[in-house]
Specification:
Layout lengths: L24 E5 L8 E6 L5 H15 L2 E7 L1 H13 L6 E3 L6 H6 L3 E2 L5 H4 L13 E2 L2 E2 L13 E5 H6 L11 H13 L5 E2 L7 H13 L4 E2 L2 E2 L10 H15 L12 H9 L5 E4 L3 H8 L7 E4 L12 E3 L6 E4 L5 H10 L3 H9 L9 H4 L5 H13 E3 L3 H4 L3 H5 L9 H10 L5 H25 L25
Parallel strand pairs: 2-3, 2-4, 9-12, 14-16
Antiparallel strand pairs: 1-3, 4-15, 5-15, 6-7, 8-12, 8-13, 10-11
Helix pairs in contact: 7-8, 7-17, 9-10
Length: 477
């Protein structure tokens, strides 16, 4: 699972998720005086579970219907939603976790157009609504609630364990050699050094390798180079990152079993105190708190790792997609749209920040909020080091026609990491080259079909020769 569809849906990628609870689902709802019927709301945000349970109760009265909130953990959400869609029993409101770009969601009858009140629209940045990402053919399907300035690959440490090993938890090493040395000291102190969410479908480790490749020098996003428009997963930056993970694994610095851990499994080890270090997203603070509240006082965070000391830890993200959708199956789309609109209220936004999950669109809310320093530190890092990337769909909205025809390519980077660490893949660069070629071929077939259907698109739409590292790509591009 990945959070990437929330962060630029024009690149075909499986979507977003990072959660903590191990139960597959849990539901909360309440009857309210004068309310009739039920409005079903499903999502995968573990850090928001209590907030959303309570919000469902408070919104039942103004919406004049009983709002029932159901939480699914990341490893179960996509399958649950797919099965519900096949049975025409989707909830009225659901989180963006399907793994398809907006054009495919529309053509596949997943989503219903929504109407956002003017006062809600006024709270959102003007560029929050992007053709092909949050709207299609002028019809709005949702709005983003989270900032694109976030990362899935921060370093989270347990203060007690690091102090016991003679390490400074407030000064987490930033480069490969120093980080590996710190893990060795944890191991010598009898502490399990590190865990990663390498298992399940490989989605999380894929995201993290994409992040680490960017700071290692890859000039693009998910294998796509910004200046040439070509796929190059076999770039030296990807090889460097995966070889580093292999070193950690071979030196037994990664917790046994991590190659099979999904996000829930790995974060549970960290939150319970079974491991000293965990590489996870900015939302780790809230997800860990949801699992084990006592971990909160032991949280400390560091930036994404770079191969060599002094390198700029710069990452790039696209415009965020809609966080929630109204289902095409909804019998009450008007109330469903109003529920989504209510998430921009001051009370909900405050609760969202304090849940310490993905940071809100307005990052300035975090500094004055009641959250732990480790979370504030992570948000500040992202504010300074995560930049807006160029996107073909922003340059030419007709690229949405290509996205609707693209297919998932496997094995993806996460699967390749699984195989390389496990020993079934011997020639890493050759396997990455196969992925580059397969992804290029998939885009080519989709582009050919889109052009045959009348779309005015070309490979040039993916080329941004004026892109420069370390800065936001211009909104007018």
């Amino acid at each position: 699972m990945t959070r990437r569809t929330l962060l630029g849906a024009s690149v075909f990628a499986a979507v977003s998720a990072a959660t903590g609870c191990s139960d597959s689902s849990s539901q909360s709802g309440t009857a309210s005086g004068g309310a009739t019927g039920t409005l079903d709301w499903w999502d995968h945000f573990s850090s928001f579970k209590r907030l959303n349970d309570d919000w469902a109760k408070t919104q039942s009265s103004p919406l004049k219907t009983n709002v029932a909130h159901t939480y699914y953990d990341a490893s179960k959400a996509t399958q649950a939603f797919q099965l519900a869609h096949q049975a025409n029993k989707m909830p009225d409101v659901y989180s963006n976790v399907i793994g398809l770009p907006l054009p495919a969601l529309v053509s596949g009858k997943w989503v219903h157009e929504v109407t956002i009140p003017a006062d809600i629209k006024s709270k959102l940045p003007k560029d929050a609504f992007t053709e092909g990402i949050t709207q299609l053919d002028g019809k709005l399907y949702g709005f983003p609630m989270f900032s694109f300035r976030q990362s899935s690959t921060l370093v989270w440490v347990n203060k007690d364990h690091w102090s016991k090993a003679g390490l400074d938890p407030n000064n987490v090493p930033t480069d490969y050699a120093a980080f590996k040395d710190a893990l060795g000291k944890l191991k010598s102190a009898g502490i399990q050094p590190l865990t990663l969410a390498i298992g399940a479908d490989g989605g999380r480790i894929r995201d993290q390798v994409d992040d680490m490749a960017q700071v290692a020098g890859f000039p693009g996003y998910q294998g796509l180079q910004f200046t040439t428009g070509e796929y190059a997963y076999h770039h030296d930056a990807y090889v460097t990152v995966i070889e580093f993970l292999k070193q950690l694994n071979d030196d037994k610095l990664i917790m046994p079993g991590s190659n099979n851990f999904g996000v829930v499994d790995a974060r549970t080890r960290y939150a319970s105190g079974a491991v000293g270090t965990f590489i996870d997203g900015i939302w780790c603070a809230g997800g860990s708190k949801a699992l084990a509240p006592t971990i909160v006082d032991k949280l400390a965070s560091g930036q994404i790792l770079v191969p060599t000391s002094g390198m700029d830890p710069w990452c790039y993200r696209g415009r965020p997609a809609a966080t929630y959708f109204v289902s095409a199956d909804s019998k009450n789309p008007d109330a469903a749209g109003k529920l989504i609109a209510s998430f921009m209220s001051d009370d909900y936004q405050k609760g969202m920040v304090e849940a310490m999950d993905q940071p809100p669109l307005n990052l300035d809310l975090v500094a004055s909020s009641n959250v732990v320093d480790a979370y504030k530190k992570g948000v500040e890092y992202c504010k300074k080091n995560v930049f807006l990337m160029p996107q073909a769909i922003v340059k030419n909205p007709a690229v949405a026609r290509i996205d609707a025809l693209r297919k998932p390519v496997t094995p993806h980077v996460g699967n390749i990491v699984q195989g390389y660490l496990g020993g079934s893949i011997k020639d890493l660069k050759a396997e990455l080259k196969k992925l580059s070629d397969a992804t290029s071929a998939d885009r080519a077939q989709a582009l050919t079909k889109a052009k045959a259907a009348g779309a005015k698109v070309s490979e040039a739409d993916y080329v941004f020769s004026d892109w420069k590292p370390g800065q936001d790509y211009g909104a007018a591009k």
